[in-house]
Amino acid sequence: MDINEILSYGFMQRALVTGVLIAVLCAILGVFLVLRRFSLIGDGLAHVTFGSVALALLLRISPGYVTVAAIPLVLLSSLGILKLSEKARVFGDAAIGIVSSLGIALGVLLASVAGGFNVDLFSYLFGNILSISETEMVIAAVLFTVVIVTVALFFNDLFAITFDEELARSSGIRADRINAVLVLMTALTVVLAMKVVGIMLISALLILPAVTALQVARGFTTTILTAAAAAVCSVVLGIFASFALNLPSGGTIVMVSLLLFALAFIIKKFRRT
User: What is the C-alpha to C-alpha distance for residues 38 and 273, in angstroms, rounded to an integer?
Assistant: First the structure.
């Protein structure tokens, strides 16, 4: 089977389009999160997404709209993490742990009420990008546009608080608002990414392209572009490999991303010698 025949399938076209959109989002936001040492928020919000999906499936919401149904609760949870770390004097990782525990506990309880884990829930847990519907692709495109426009509008402020939040505050930037914007965009991206790599592997898609770019890129803008390129390569190669080898798409994408990180690390080592 050649590449043209593979690309003739509608499910492959939807997987590639949606995967590329989400890969770019994860890469851009991942750079900000990694540099701020807040990258594990993706893992915490992924657990909340698990609870949200379990609730949506319990309520018999159409599979094509589970993503939309999960968004409000994940957005509120992202703000909850932020407020816990700011107001309750809880460190960021502890705040993530609190909300993460709540999300996973809620998901397990709801799954139990619903009569156990079903096939739909497992597809969200471990990812199945080849099953993305046209509705989910459209939702991903809309939310991609929202996040990209927001990043463009607040780019300078995001850059400032990433490297020196205190200096940003003293220069008049409303850091609390920018932090809220960042975690809300991350929440949207996490919800979108659950069908690409699965809830259990979302944090990998946020972290690996960013740390890959940080190994080889010089300059902030170059780092973002490199991270985006690494994420897109991971998703595209992972999709083709999972289809050709009949492997789980989420795990395959993450393994390709890990290989790219290893390659970048080796290149960095050779540059130093």
Answer: 32
CA distances, 216 to each of 159, 238, 251 (Å): 20, 22, 24
Q: Which residue has the tokens 């495109």?
A: 141
Of residues 131, 108, 100, 125, the one with CA closest to residue 197: 125
Q: Which of 24, 25, 29, 22 is nearest to 183 (CA)?
A: 29
State how far the Cα of 215 lies from the Cα of 119, in Å rounded to an integer. 39
Place of tokens 């259990």: 200
> For residue range 205-223, what is the model confidence (pLDDT) as tens digits?
889 999 999 999 888 999 9
Tens digits of residue pLDDT in 17-72: 988 999 999 999 999 999 988 877 887 888 888 888 778 777 777 766 777 788 88
How many CB atoms lie under 10 A from the CB of residue 9?
A: 12
Q: Whole-model pTM?
A: 0.86
Amino acid at 143: L
Catalogue all structural domains in the chain, each as residue range(s) with its CATH number. Answer: 3-272 (1.10.3470.10)
